[in-house]
Amino acid sequence: MQNMTAELQKTEPPKRQASYDLGTFRVLIVEDYPFIADLLHSSLNELGVGSVLVSPNIAAAKEKILNFNLVASSTNLDVIVLDWLMPDGKGFELLHWIRNHESDSIKYLAVIVCSAYTNLELVTQSRDSGANEVLVKPVSAEKLARRILSVIDKPRPFLKTGEFFGPDRRRKKQAFAGADRRKTKPEEVTEKHEQLQ
Asked: Is-cis flag, bond preceding 186, omega within 30?
């Protein structure tokens, strides 16, 4: 009996995941297929997201982003779920527009790229264009929740280099053993991002 008690004391209670009230959260879905847009919309509603908007193309998405995020306010969009292949362009074009915008409340928007075509080239291009996360279709509510929680719980600092602006592309903190061959150091610009929140 003592051994059993000792074993029970050694086991730790399961870790509780943080719960969030997403009632004031705003998400924009940029998706041209109505079925996928409805699926994402329903999943976000089930997660308790307060406001879900849908744009069927890049032009409509830009208009909504400008309407909601041109100036920092409590009604700004929080996350964009972006399909990579759209009828009027590719996702990286919208992502490039977002990351290079003058307005900080647009520039620092969290973007989750969502695509059925998840080859290494697409993942690399999404990362190098400034995406926060990549989501593979078919989408489940669980996968979508994990990506959104990753954006909330593990925000990566934004960096600016000569050719890149966006979340730090490195996921692991590792010491670098080689010589630093950068011509210029990247500039960490998280201060502005933290002020927006």
From this structure: no
Closest CA to 150 of 112, 95, 118: 112
Residue 126, Cβ density class (10 Å: 0-12 exposed, 13-18 middle, ≥19 buried): buried
Beta strands in the chain (DSSP E): 26-30, 51-55, 79-83, 85-86, 89-90, 110-115, 133-136, 158-160, 165-167, 187-188
Q: What angle do CA 162, 167, 171 make, to 5 degrees?
A: 115
Question: What is the CATH classification number for the domain harbouring 128?
Answer: 3.40.50.2300
Q: What percent of the chain has pLDDT over 90?
A: 50
What per-residue confidence (pLDDT) applies to 189?
Answer: 65
Residue 185 lies in a domain: no
The predicted pLDDT at position 118 comes to: 72
Within-domain flag for 16: no
Per-residue pLDDT at 6 exceeds 70: no
Number of domains comprising the chain: 1
SS3 content of the chain, % helix, strand, coil (to 5): 40, 20, 40
Mean pLDDT of the chain: 83
Q: Could you tell me the residue range of the domain that residue 134 belongs to?
A: 23-156
Domain-embedded: residue 141: yes
